[in-house]
Design goal:
Residues 6-122 form the Response regulatory domain. It comes from Glycomyces paridis. InterPro entries: CheY-like_superfamily, NreC/VraR/RcsB-like_REC, Sig_transdc_resp-reg_C-effctor, Sig_transdc_resp-reg_receiver, Tscrpt_reg_LuxR_C, WalR-like. This protein has helices spanning 14-25, 42-49, 65-73, 90-99, 111-122, 130-143, 147-156, 161-171, 176-183, 187-201, 206-215, and strands at residues 5-10, 30-36, 53-56, 80-85, 103-106, 127-128. By secondary structure, it is of the alpha/beta class. Strands 2-1-3-4-5-6 form a six-stranded parallel sheet, with helices on both faces. Helix 9 packs across helix 10.
Length: 220
């Protein structure tokens, strides 16, 4: 049997934490290893408990979830972060994802989908609620060409042709198997190209790569 996904729940509402503990604990393959009521507690708990995923609220006293995510994901060997919040302000979405969060869900997400999202983020797959996806698409349309597009294309210039092709497919939301089929590659080869692209660009995960491709206008 595989080891359960270890989760640290971070939310300033004790009732929310209790509810999430019950939901996740009932999944069988997910284990809540700890709780925190503020982002201030996250670094020490993450270092001690070694969770696979931190389920992070954004609006908390002291250190908020955005700052906590940035600090946590900047450290080597950091756990994945799945944001679960009641708010979806554009700036919060982009800042959380650019900081390295592997997913962004709203608190009205059905319990079964929250559990599934934890599993996916632990496996390195990006997860975005439909509302958040629509916002990101809208922001991309509104932004249009400009300095950000030029900077993004300049950064992507560090990739070779095949890595760029794979990055574009990641930006389209393709899983490794989908990308392999589209580009006539093996799944291990796709994984190698994704890892190489992330390393060359100094990115933490596929979500950040997808955002960069989006900024560069390569999905137009």
């Amino acid at each position: 049997m595989t080891e359960p996904v270890r989760v640290l729940v971070v939310d300033d509402d004790p009732l929310v934490r209790a509810g999430l503990r019950m939901i996740l604990g009932g999944a069988g393959d997910v284990e809540v290893v700890g709780e925190a009521g503020s982002g201030t507690e996250v670094p020490a708990l993450a270092a001690t408990l070694r969770p696979d995923v931190v389920l992070m609220d954004l609006h908390m006293p002291g250190v908020d979830g955005l700052t906590a995510t940035e600090r946590l994901r900047a450290a080597p060997g950091a756990p994945e972060v799945l944001v679960l919040t009641a708010f979806e302000a554009d700036g919060h979405v982009r800042r959380a994802l650019r900081a390295g969060a592997g997913g962004f869900l709203l608190k009205d997400t059905p319990p079964a989908e929250i559990v599934a999202a934890v599993r996916r983020v632990a496996a390195g797959e990006p997860v975005l609620s439909p509302e958040v996806t629509r916002r990101l698409i809208g922001l991309a349309i509104e932004a249009g060409p400009g300095d950000r597009r030029g900077r993004a294309r300049e950064r992507l210039g560090a990739l070779n042709t095949r890595e760029t092709e794979v990055a574009v497919e990641v930006g389209r939301g393709g899983a490794n198997a989908d990308i392999a089929a589209a580009l006539h590659l093996s799944v291990p080869t796709v994984k190698t190209h994704v890892s190489a692209a992330l390393s060359k660009l100094g990115l933490n995960n596929r979500v950040q790569l997808a955002l960069l491709v989006n900024d560069a206008g390569l999905l137009d």
